[in-house]
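Obj: model holo form, ligand = iron/sulfur cluster.
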Amino acid sequence: MAGDGLDRARRSFLRGRPAAGPAPIHPPWSRPDSLTALCTRCGACADACAEAILIPGDGGYPEVDFTRGECIFCGACADACAEVYAGPIFDRTAAPWSLRPTIAPSCLAVQRVVCRSCQDACPEGAIRFQPAPFQVGMGGAAHARIDEAACTGCGACVAACPAGAVILTHQSGSPAHAD
Ligand code: SF4
Ligand code: SF4
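Output (holo structure tokens):
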């Protein structure tokens, strides 16, 4: 139904990923294969989340909604799951995830409007603005650049962006969050 498609697109946009995005963003350290196979959708992880960023996603499986805030990597979601379900849904020995942001063309800085909201919100100092190559008629607008080594994928930049231009996606080849 067309309405359902629009709703799905809007939900996806608000969660910081494109409507046709490859993979939902599940809680940190969760293994996507184990999650869909073993998760009972009890909601214990969402109830435990200190930042209240976990919501029921597609199929009722927990997903991260970065419009609500950032992940502080406290591990409460994984601990709560371990208490009610002692299975391998979460793997705390691995990296929490491989999320990294990209900046969409709707970025205000790209539109030559002064904005540093994502840079100001980043707790890791992973966003820097650099002058873009001069273009006739465009002047020298500054564009956001992500230091992927410094970025933790916490998502603080997502809600901070007034243009909804920050999109988090799993890096390709991630073993824990394969697309
Ligand atoms: S690590 Fe903490 S802040 Fe991040 S999703 Fe889990 S409970 Fe929430
Ligand atoms: S995801 Fe977190 S660490 Fe990475 S650029 Fe955004 S705010 Fe900074």
